[in-house]
Amino acid sequence: MSIVATVEHLVSQLGAPALFVTLTLESLGAPVPGESAVIAASAAASRGELDIRAVAVAAFAGAVLGDNIGFLIGRKLGRRTVVRYGSRFGVTDAAFDRVEAVARRWGPLMVVAARFVVLLRQLNGIVAGTTGMAWPRFLAANALGAALWVGLWCTLAWRLGRDAHAFVPWIWHHLSLAAAVLVPLLVLGLLALRLSGCLHAPR
User: Fold this and answer.
1) Under 8 Å between Cβ of 17 and 132
2) Burial (0-12, 13-18, 19+ Cβ within 10 Å), 88
């Protein structure tokens, strides 16, 4: 909780640049609260302290950049090196096994959905690189997932205008609202990727 509070304070004080750095680091596998940072920044924007457009752009850019750096690291260094040096940040063999199994089965589908799951969100870029996923497919799926994730949390936190500390537990009691917004967008996005040829059905 102290880490969450620290990140929220930095985001509220430094704005979009701090959010961009936080999201980039989280997408590289660092144990920082990216989701809480997006919610805190969007809530601050609802109070007129930040520009919601800058918040959304910074969050999207940080998420996509971090994942693509992770993809490059995974592709160039391989699993053994990543686990060896990443274990101090929670990138363990066990965690890698779980994410890698999902990646091999679902491919780009995993990349899109990964934005909404803590462990997958932090490792999906690295794992996509180590499993040999084609970069154009990864980039398309990653950008779609980031856009859906950022759009969901920015819109909800900004529209509702709640304090970040109260917002997270509040949303868990209103999952039907989140699902009503997220599921149609996710289905449409996956259909668009499928029709464009970027996404193949899992075997």
Assistant:
1) no
2) exposed
Q: What are phi and psi of 125, to 5 degrees?
A: -65, -45
Contact 27, 67 (CB under 8 A): yes
44 or 62, which is more confident?
62
Say what the pTM is.
Answer: 0.72
Cβ(126)–Cβ(73) under 8 Å? yes
Indicate the pLDDT class of residue 57, thresholds 50, 70 and 90: very high
State the amino acid at position 112 in one-letter form: V
CB 71 within 8 A of CB 135: yes
Every domain of the chain and the residues it spans: 2-196
Q: Which amino acid is at 189?
A: G
Task: Give the whole-angstrom CA distance, residue 140 versus residue 143.
Answer: 5
Burial 54-69 (b: 16+ CB within 10 A, else e): bbbebbbbbbbbbbbb
Above pLDDT 90, what percent of the chain? 19
Q: Are 29 and 89 in contact (CB under 8 A)?
A: yes
- The residue to which tokens 């464009």 are assigned: 196
The one-letter amino acid code at 183 reads: V
- Check residue 120 and report its DSSP letter: H
